[in-house]
# Entry
Amino acid sequence: MQGTSYYIPAAAMAAALAFKVPSLVRAWRDPLLRAVCALLAMAGLVFFFAAPPTIAKVNRLTGVTNFSAPLVYALLSGFSASCLVLLVNWRGGPAERTRRISRRWIAGYGVHIVLLVVLFALGDTPVERLRDLDTYYANTPYIREMIVLYLTGVTVAGMTMNFLCWRWALQVHGWLRTGLLIIMLGYTFNTAYGAAKFAAVFARWAGKDWDALSTDLAPILASLGAQISAVGFCLPLVCQRLADTWHIWASYRQLGPLWRELDKIAPAHVRAVGNLWWSSAELSLTRRESDIHDGLLSLHPYFDHDVHARALAAAVAAGTDPEQAQAMADAAMVVSAVRARVADPEGKLLKSSDTAESATAEGTRDLVRISAVLREAPVAAAASGHAAMPESEVH
# Structure
């Protein structure tokens, strides 16, 4: 793999991290968000510092031959720890238990990193190796132990992640389960990376040359594993966000008929503002719900409970279920009230009323159900027919 094969995923991780930084600043105390940012940072650093051009540059800048070796191995250990911590926080549970497990993983891999540095300091690597240090120094005292230690750490993390993901996947469904299975696939490649490296090192111990497994195959496996795992981590979060946005817009559209009915009596300045196209789904839904509640509140003096009772009785007599019958009665009363308000342009009844009760005498209803009744033209017509309010009753 050439330098660009490392730098492209490193740049992708950096871009994703930059996208998350504003959220991290606003919610620094969120352990899940911190874990996500730590994972992105460690992944980007691993790819950047593992690139052969970067390895050569770091060695020259530090003046220490093969200084990049313990640096990259330490970053790999940090990446392994960040993956485990992210999964622990993602799964959730009692806060104290989550913090305790996270600290154990961090402490364990912290000791692991210290041992890597100590073993490198005790060993001797006079010849710079940009791509094959693992096999070249496979028989060198202390360096040999450092190589086995870092590969063990990577392998343990991969196997643990697969075990935890599988156990969690058996308990969940939907996009979360799909994401966990994709993460497992990614860490299967990471485990294969460790196996390829180990095989090449063991072959050196046996006097054989399987260096291609370490030099050519292992980096490809690591890259695939990291990218697949990243998809697994992101997929459930993105899909959940899209699903939430879809449900919000669906609720917004479903409230449309009721909002348009009440828009007939809305003040001109409110009608002029309308919904801004760049508004978020949450803000648009909140504005529509607020408009509806304000409209229902302003209609309170015009609500005719006899209209409500007649429409409810008619719906029940037609065999409609209680919740739907109640919605039809509410819709009939709203249509009647809107007509009454339109027939009272000076708002005489409104000005004479000092009540500040809820929108309907029966309490707040399911606005979506009421809106659905208004959307169905025949039902709405029937309801408004029952709801027709003689003009004389308005005055």
User: Anything to note?
Assistant: The chain has two domains: 3-246, 255-394. The longest helix spans residues 211-254.
